[in-house]
Design a protein that fits this description.
heterodimer; A: alpha/beta; Rossmann fold; two-stranded antiparallel sheet; 20% strand; B: alpha/beta; three-stranded mixed β-sheet; 22 helices; globular; UPF0229 protein VAPA_1c17970 (chain A); UPF0229 (chain A)
Chain lengths: 430, 501
């Protein structure tokens, strides 16, 4: 009998078949997911931004309605495992449900009851939502996600390449080796035959017909061998060697990012959150370019101090504002710890623009004389609308100083234009 | 007989060897099956299969994404082992073997799915009547392409909403009481263009009379009823009569309806289907063991899994969630065999037609001609009721307490059997909701009627489902819940969706 059977190994095909369904699922709950990502962003440290996140959706939101029976009515239901009951026994109705397990057969999905629906966003999905929030154009996303600088260097030889990379010595060496290898056997035979020929010619009875014959045969064999040897090509495509070059990404060695923020009373939570996103994005941008990144947090009211990230975002002080104090401190720290020959220095300042009015001019001078010459880039974001004297002072620098950019940010999506400037400065078309 | 090699790791050759032996054994019992296609897959692919309702492929929809996430989560946390068997009712019959399984488990799956379920799909009357195994895969491929095309042409949102609405009515896309037209799914896709034209024509005829201002309301209300008798197949009714649906939307409704129809027999034969497959893996592997083909360790391994599958937690147990269909089905088929081979006095009284007959023939007859409801009604034996210690609870809303109405004793067997049979009747499990009336002359509102059985009220989801109906119908939709006396005890209304275009 012929058994009709077939065994197919499907393990390598159709991986990730559900991806399209997952995308649709995420699309459907975009609003809630965005909200969850926002919450996560404000709860995370700058360095921890790039991770997945658990998202919780209320069970009701993901349920799919169908017609079904509710509790109540008159039913009869059969159960297994009777221990003590006899016909006619009466049982108190269990709390919270009508009639022992009347719902079986109409159970919800997977018996998960009323729990919320929790699932994990992958790092990629999380970042996508984060970028969406900032309204980053796609081009920029890929640039942020890529390592922008490549260094090409030699890496041995390959057997194919373009003619300009042909390595002549290497190729000829190969050809020689091949000729030796292919000509080995015939050469041995040739030596043997030539010796034999000499021996024959030196023979006293060299004139005898028998010997003569042998001489002629030997000479023919020698000629044949020489012909063969001539057919070993002098150079063959197989011998060619090309210089191989590979590109490796170069993260320039080291960068330091100064985060300056005003913590006077007027900086409320929402404004700090905005500033934080700006710092996060800058940090991410830097991680694509540099191997090690130091973060320095400077906060100021009337005086500046260096603090941890935790204190930076979560401490509120009151009092006036003297912005220059932070710039002075930044300058000192650069001189002390981050000589600009070794470090790429970036500065990012967030403030609501409120400043002691006699201080703003000084800020501009500090920037021009001390800071801008040693930093790669300095960005100022004002998280408030009103233009006060600090804004006006800084505005004089814009367009004159190539590595300075400033923006007003009243919404997360306003943060990106600062970056557009940044990318322009980096010589990447945006 | 030769002892088969039994290392714990499987190889393709071993699977072939075992499959050949299992096939021979199955043939000796006369099991009639579709040709088999065994597919080795990974755990992730198994979860995929779960998420796409056990189908090798299905159109894309967010709900399958949700299902996948839920399955994966439970699997990762160890809340559930992946069931080791998913099998597709198709010709050839596709059974999945998970790569993580040991050889003993693979043999179990082959016997269970490729010979048990497979022969059930091929033999049971509901499947023969309702499903078209030879072309289901092609149809699913067509459905997936068609819906992907719709997404491109009409946007993801429009298609998603339409599918959401169809899914809400999926259980009402089947003719329960009428024999379906036997039309091969293969013809479905080829005739699409003709059908679209024809259907639009019909809809146009139906709505040709322009709605007039109702001057003589009394007259117009009673003049003509449409539909002339209640319709149980809501999706079919919508597909044929909803005035505002585009041709592509009609086709999508049809696709969901066809797929719902394909699953309809499975919803009605769970106990039989699982019981049959479990009975046969047990019987086939034991037969092979008796013939000296299987090693002891091998037997121990699949038996421990088997025992887990047929465990019935008693009521009140933490793991209790109703009667386990594997346990009940396995017990009933095993009992039936015993009644044929070694009938007792009691069996002769209860089963005069079957006691002492050829068990293979009798089981085959039972498998072919019943569904859960009638199978339980016909074959549930007193011994099974005693083994399970079954008892029935009466729960009437008018009474403060529950009452034990029957237990596993002489006076209760008959009542228990009838009660359990009713429990498996799909008509009593799902609310009876039918198309009742369409207001042809006025606002074109559609009225659905829920006929209460035993005063069971509708779940609150009804309101949400009704919105979906309104989206499909395009005009207002009413739902009336009617009690035994014919009074409308509750009603819902969903307003027509606003026309955006």
């Amino acid at each position: 009998m012929a058994i009709l059977q077939q065994i197919i190994d499907r393990r390598l095909s159709g991986k990730n078949k559900s991806i399209g369904n997952r995308e649709r699922f995420l699309r459907r709950y975009r609003g809630q997911i965005q909200e969850a990502v926002r919450r996560a962003v404000s709860g995370r440290n700058i360095r921890e931004l790039e991770q997945g996140e658990d998202v919780t959706l209320p069970r009701h939101d993901v349920s799919e309605p169908v017609f079904g029976h509710a509790r109540g009515g008159d039913r009869e239901y059969v159960h297994p495992g009777n221990q003590e009951y006899l016909k006619g026994d009466r049982i108190a109705r269990p709390e919270g449900q009508a009639g022992g397990g009347s719902g079986s057969g109409e159970a919800g999905d997977g018996g998960e009851g009323e729990d919320d629906f929790v699932f994990r966003l992958t790092r990629e999905e999380f970042m996508r939502v984060f970028f969406d929030d900032l309204a980053l154009p796609h081009l920029i996303r890929t640039q942020i996600a890529e390592v922008p600088e490549w260094k090409s260097h030699r890496a041995g030889f390959t057997s194919d390449g373009s003619p300009n990379n042909l390595h002549v010595v290497r190729s000829m060496r190969g050809a020689l080796a091949r000729r030796i290898a292919l000509g080995g056997e015939p050469r041995k035979d040739l030596k043997r035959l030539e010796a034999h020929l000499r021996h024959l010619k030196a023979h006293p009875q060299a004139e005898q017909a028998l010997i003569k014959n042998e001489i002629r045969e030997t000479e023919e064999q020698i000629a044949e061998l020489r012909r063969t040897m001539r057919h070993v090509p002098y150079i063959d495509p197989i011998d060619l060697r090309y210089r191989n070059r590979v590109k490796t990404p170069v993260p320039s060695a080291k960068a330091v990012m100064f985060c300056l923020m005003d913590v006077s009373g007027s900086m409320d939570e929402a404004r700090k959150d905005m500033a934080k996103r700006f710092f996060m994005l800058l940090y991410m941008f830097l991680t694509r370019h540099y191997e090690t990144i130091d973060l320095v947090f400077l906060r100021h009211h009337t005086q500046a101090q260096e603090v941890t990230e935790e204190e930076f975002f979560h401490a509120t002080e009151t009092g006036g504002t003297v912005v220059s104090s932070a710039l002075v401190l930044m300058d000192e720290i650069i001189k002390a710890r981050y000589p600009s020959g070794e470090w790429n220095v970036y500065g990012a300042q967030a403030s609501d623009g409120d400043n002691w009015h006699q201080d703003s001019g000084r800020c501009r001078e500090l920037l021009v004389d001390h800071i801008l010459p040693v930093v790669r880039y300095y960005a100022y974001v004002q998280v408030a609308e009103t233009e006060q004297n600090l804004w006006q002072e800084y505005a004089q620098l814009e367009g004159i100083e190539p590595n300075f950019a400033m923006r007003k940010v009243s919404d997360a999506r306003d943060i990106y234009p600062v970056f557009r400037d940044l990318f322009k400065k980096e010589g990447v078309p945006a | 007989m030769e002892r088969l090699p039994s290392p714990s790791d499987w190889t393709f050759d071993l699977i072939e060897t075992y499959h050949a032996e299992i096939a021979k054994t199955a043939k000796s019992f006369g099991l009639d099956v579709y040709p088999n296609q065994l597919e080795v897959i990974t755990a992730e692919q198994m979860m995929d299969a779960y998420a796409s309702v056990g189908m090798p492929m299905i159109y894309r929809h967010w709900s399958y994404g949700k299902q996948f996430i839920a399955t994966e989560k439970n699997y990762r946390r160890g809340h559930m082992g992946l069931a080791y068997e998913i099998v597709i009712n198709s010709d050839p019959c596709i059974a999945y073997l998970m790569e993580e399984n040991t050889m003993a488990m693979q043999a179990l799956v082959i016997a269970h799915a490729a010979y048990g379920h497979n022969s059930f799909f091929k033999g049971n009357y509901l499947f023969r009547m309702w499903t078209d195994a030879s072309s289901i895969i092609d149809y699913l491929v067509y459905a997936r392409h068609y819906i992907a095309e719709c997404e491109e042409r009409h946007g993801l949102d429009a298609v998603e909403q339409l599918l959401d609405s169809c899914h809400a009515l999926m259980n009402y896309g089947v003719d329960r009481y009428r024999r379906p037209q036997k039309r091969s799914l293969a013809q479905e896709s080829t005739q699409r263009a003709d059908r679209e034209r024809h259907m639009q024509q019909q809809v146009n005829d139906l709505w040709r009379t322009l709605p007039r201002k109702s001057e003589h309301t009394t007259e117009s209300d009673s003049s003509r009823r449409f539909p002339s008798e209640p319709q149980e197949n809501l999706l079919y009714f919508i597909e044929k009569n909803a005035a505002l649906l585009e041709p592509w939307q009609r086709e999508v409704v049809r696709i969901v309806r066809k797929i719902a129809q394909y699953f309809y027999p499975q919803r009605q034969t769970q106990v039989m289907n699982e019981g049959w497959a479990t009975f046969w893996h047990y019987t086939l592997l034991n037969t092979m063991y008796d013939r000296g083909q299987l090693a002891d360790g091998f037997m121990m391994e699949w038996l421990s899994s088997h025992t887990g599958v047929i465990f019935q937690p008693p009521v009140g147990h933490r793991a209790y969630s109703g009667i386990n269909p594997y346990a009940l089905g396995f017990s009933m088929f095993t009992e039936l065999r015993r009644i044929c081979e070694k009938p007792t006095e009691e069996d002769r009284r209860w089963f005069p037609d079957f006691a002492g007959t050829d068990w293979v023939k009798t089981l085959d007859y039972a498998m072919r001609n019943f569904k859960d409801e009638s199978f339980v009604g016909q074959f549930l034996s007193p011994k099974t009721m005693r083994d399970f210690r079954l008892f029935s609870i009466r729960d009437h809303q008018s009474e403060p307490e529950l009452e034990v109405s029957a237990i596993h004793d002489d006076s209760g067997y008959q009542a228990l059997r009838e009660s359990l049979s009713r429990q498996y009747d799909i008509g009593s499990r799902e609310p009876d909701i039918q198309v009742w009336n369409v207001n042809m002359r006025g606002d074109r509102a559609l009225t659905l009627r829920h006929t209460q059985r035993n005063n069971l009220p509708l779940h609150d989801d009804a309101e949400e489902v009704l919105k979906h109906v309104a989206r499909l119908w395009g005009f207002d939709v009413h739902l009336e819940s009617v009690d035994a006396q014919g009074h409308i005890s509750r009603s819902w209304k969903a307003a027509a969706p606003r026309q955006t275009d």
